[in-house]
């Protein structure tokens, strides 16, 4: 059984991402990274996560290879942005009330992905 199936498929991933973007919508650090309505970003994240965890390959069919670092390269992602992202995602995962092993597997990936996206090592307010 894939994690996609174990969590309940698409409805669970949609709930996860919807809850995550509720946090992003009110976050003064993350919200400015989205020039558009949050809906398209939520759809892309949902499709990506579903595919990653064994669901349909709709993401790749629509957008090609994920290339996560390349797609996020235009945005400054430092420790503060990573931590804000993780805070909203942790809240979203907790609200799913998943089996502990499934929640742990999902969280482990999300945490690794957040650290992988960091592309700015110093605080912009500090001199180099």
From TrEMBL:
Family, as annotated: Belongs to the truncated hemoglobin family. Group II subfamily.
SUPFAM superfamilies per record: Globin-like (SSF46458)
Keywords per UniProt: Heme, Iron, Metal-binding, Transport
Name under which the protein is recorded: Globin
CDD domains: TrHb2_Mt-trHbO-like_O
Species, as recorded: Micromonospora profundi
Molecular function terms from GO: heme binding; metal ion binding; oxygen binding; oxygen carrier activity
Keyword hit for Metal-binding: yes
